[in-house]
Amino acid sequence: MIGRSTRCCACLLVMGAVGGCASPRAGRSGGGGGDGGAAGDGALGGAAATLGRMCFGACGSADERKCSISSTDCASDLCLVDPASATVNYCTIDCTSSPCPAGWRCEAIQAFGHPEVQRACVAEPAMCGDGITQLGETCDADDPVLGRCVECMRFEARCGDGVVQSPEVCDGDTPDAYCAPGCSRLVHPAFSFDVNERVASAIDRVSGSTTYFYGTGYETGETLSGELPLAGGADGCGGVRVVEATSELTRLEWTYCEAEGDGMSIWTFALPRAVVTYDDWEGPIPPQLGASVTLRKRGTDRHVEWTMADMQRFEVRTYIADDPAHTLGSIQLRFEHPDPIQSFTNDTATLNLDVEMTHPVLAP
How far is CA 76 from CA 45, 85, 127, 154, 272, in A? Predict the structure, then answer.
């Protein structure tokens, strides 16, 4: 049980605690400093219906006394302003001729707009730990669902209960991100590529009326990273998009364009979510891990696509970094296709890729 302490009754109103505190505290003697005994709500009529409800306004008092203003938020038309907590106002009732309900005391106030009202009911300080949630408290006992009540001000955050509470940033995955351990941050699907790509002997060739085009010869090495999907530039150059996401794998499409040429390559490959090794055709390779590359001449529809039938080397190695959604791995792909004109040469496309990836969040 939390230790007992007393606090100003109004300080939690700004936190929305009014709903559980508007009613007078049961069992608490009223009267307020010898101004009379407890009176039931019936004796006070409908004016007490909104007692303790949050209200709005300022009475511009010249001193530090509590004051009251007219407010349509209150059934009594009286809103109490406490200068000691200027942002917190609550509905009160006139106790000049009638005693306050239990849990409230009658105090002298400075009237503003109500010169005839010189005394009003003020909430007694809440007693933290007595098991009664009243004005100024968010809770007064532990809750089996919401958790431990901390100083009657808030429920202690419990990571994993599905309720986001301060200081948590999240408490469960969202459609776009994972909730990190400890509920401390959101982790968005992302990737990091360390790329080495080579397209060789791929140039325009003309044989009779047929034009063969497989791209242009180029080689690149670069590091690319970002959140998924990554938008590319013109023609999708530099972009990485998710083609498929399942509980087994994530299939990506990466588009590379020559910086000073018109060659363009579109690589499609899968990264398993589980630990897996397929080294140089050791397998058999599951069909869903099939890779492909399309070589294209930018600005035209001239292209060629190579699939697993053209594969000369296939190597995929992955392992889980820290959780099933986070994978490290390496991929080596080599496509080779005979020259349609000169039979003694081959066109090739090779991709070596070291990758780290946080997979997309799967729908429940």
Answer: 10, 22, 27, 30, 68
Residue 229 sits at the vertex; the CA angle it makes with 228 and 233, to the nearest 5 degrees, is 130
User: Taking a C-beta distance cutoff of 8 angstroms, is the pair 218, 199 a contact?
Assistant: yes
Q: Are strands 190-200 and 311-323 parallel, antiparallel or unpaired?
A: unpaired
Q: Count the neighbouring beta carbons within 10 Å of the beta carbon of residue 166.
A: 8
For residues 234 and 264, give the distance between their C-alpha atoms in angstroms, rounded to a whole number.
Answer: 12
Q: What is the mean pLDDT of residues 265-269?
A: 94
Nearest partner of 28 among 137, 132, 139, 141, judged by Cα:
132
Q: Is the dihedral of CA 138, 141, 147, 151 positive or negative?
A: positive
CA nearest to 245, candidates 189, 307, 308, 316: 189
Strand partners, 256: 265
In order, the DSSP letters of 50-74 are GTT-B-------SSSS-EEEE-TTS
pTM of the model: 0.59
Is residue 293 within 8 A of residue 306, CB to CB? The reply is yes
Dump pLDDT digits (tens) for 170-184. Answer: 999 999 999 988 899
Q: Residue 182 has which token pair?
A: 């400890």
Separation between Cα atoms, residue 23 and residue 56, nearest integer Å: 19
Hey, what amino acid is at 226?
Answer: G
Q: 5-14, 103-112, 152-161, 205-214 — which is least confidently predicted? A: 5-14
Tell me the per-residue pLDDT of 196-252, one tens digit each, with 9 for 90 and over. Answer: 998 875 544 444 455 555 445 778 898 999 999 999 888 889 999 999 999 999 999
- Terminal-to-terminal C-alpha distance of the chain: 39
**Pair 258, 235: CB distance under 8 Å:** no
Nearest to 246 by CA among 101, 129, 132, 360: 360
